[in-house]
Each structure stands twice: as C-alpha cells, then as structure tokens.
C-alpha cells in the first residue's frame, strides 16, 4: 500500500468523496478530527462507513488513545464492521501494542472474525515518551503491521512553536522521523510517512513523498483527496530505477556463484541486489 487517506469519522460526505479516490486505504478517524462531544456519536457513523466500504480499499479505524478511557468503547462499536486494521495514536512501545492486541483478540472472538487478522498500525512519535520508546518493539504482537510518524502532536509535547520552516522539518522532528523509519525496519513492519499539511502545494508534496520513498518509507498518510494521486505516483519506482534494478537482477542470475558483478563500469554486490529486488517488488504493487 502507498496511500492512507484520513477521513473524519463523523462525515459521510467526506467518506463518499474518499471512496472515489485511488487511496489504497482509508483511515476512519475517531480521534483528532472529532470534537469531544461528538466522539460517541461518531462511532456509529464509522460503523456505517465500514459497512459501505469500497471493495478495493482497505479500511482502518483510528481509535482514541489508550489513556483516554475511550478505546474499548471505540472498538466495541467498530469491530463488528470488520476493519482491516486499527490505528493506535500516542503509542509508546510494545506494551501499548500488546494491550491493544489483547483487546482485539476478545473483539474478534465476539464478532466471529478470524483470530489475529486485524492489523495494528501505530502512530509512534506523537509524544516525547513515545519517541524514546521507538526501540521497544522487540516483543510486540505479530499484529503490528506498520509504524507511522507524526510531527503535529510531537510539537505540542516538546513545547515547540513550530516543527518546520519553509517546508523543511526542524532537527527534533527529523530525528523522530528517522528513528521511526529505522525502528520499523528493525521490527520488520511498514514505515509510513506523515501527512503534508499544506493542502495546495502539490509540488512540495511530490518532493516530500519521493524523498520518503527513497529513504525507505513504503507509504504516506494524506489528509486531502487531491493528495492521493501525487503520493501514489511518488511511491512507485521510476522507469530508470526499474531498468537499473532489472540489470542487477539479470547480472546476478547469469552469475549465481558471484558475490560481486560489474555493470556499466560499476562494482555491484549483494546489498545492491537486495535493493534492486525490493524496487522490482514495489513495481508490482
């Protein structure tokens, strides 16, 4: 998957618009986009959205954080709708993932859902404590599928007046981004890049998305339908990357006992082969 489009959980109109996009997944939101007094009512709306899903899109639900006391109520309302996954905000390490996993086991059993089939995606950098817990995923539930980083809540946690200047993230936020990427790779799960907040600057979105893919992110969260096509295109390899990767794979297939091959005057070894194979796998998404 390349694009995760957030949809406010109380807006059927925005849900209908989101279904018409090429977003690989929708995140039906019960957290930040919903006013406190509307959160309980939004649960039923999200349940109706799950029933009216587009068959080509995965459906995730972002529940309220574990420390709000609302998580179980959110899950009780939406799990009968069989979401593909749950997005856990303010996640601080393996303990939070494992706690959510236990909840999901119970709700899957109650709803007749295949055990273990509901994925977990964490928003893993929203507090200073969460950033420090990014290395604490060695004993997490196998449900963990992806780790997303975010800069907006982290700014509030740090007391920062802004998180970027001229479209470029400041140091603490780049640190959180890179640590999330590395931690996701170490955990063997998908790293998901954060949203672009400037809705109208599509050139900046394209540049940011390409940089994220080149660094190793496999998907990006978006907050507006017109961002979807830009992100989907950016998270596919270019023709040049594909051609070069095919050369590498071919060279090693013709020299299966070699640890190093020479292509166009360059010495290419097995790490290059693994990178090439990953690029060709992206081509088939």
Automatic annotation (TrEMBL):
Cofactor(s) essential for the protein: Mg(2+)
GO function term, MF aspect, one: magnesium ion binding
Classification via Gene3D superfamilies: Phosphoenolpyruvate-binding domains
Keywords noted in UniProt: Lyase, Magnesium, Metal-binding
Keyword Iron: no
GO biological process terms, semicolon-separated: oxaloacetate metabolic process
Binding site for substrate: 62, 126
Domain HpcH/HpaI aldolase/citrate lyase: 2-225
Chain positions recorded as Mg(2+) binding sites: 126, 153
Family: Belongs to the HpcH/HpaI aldolase family.
Name of the protein this chain belongs to: CoA ester lyase
Source organism of the structure: Bradyrhizobium archetypum
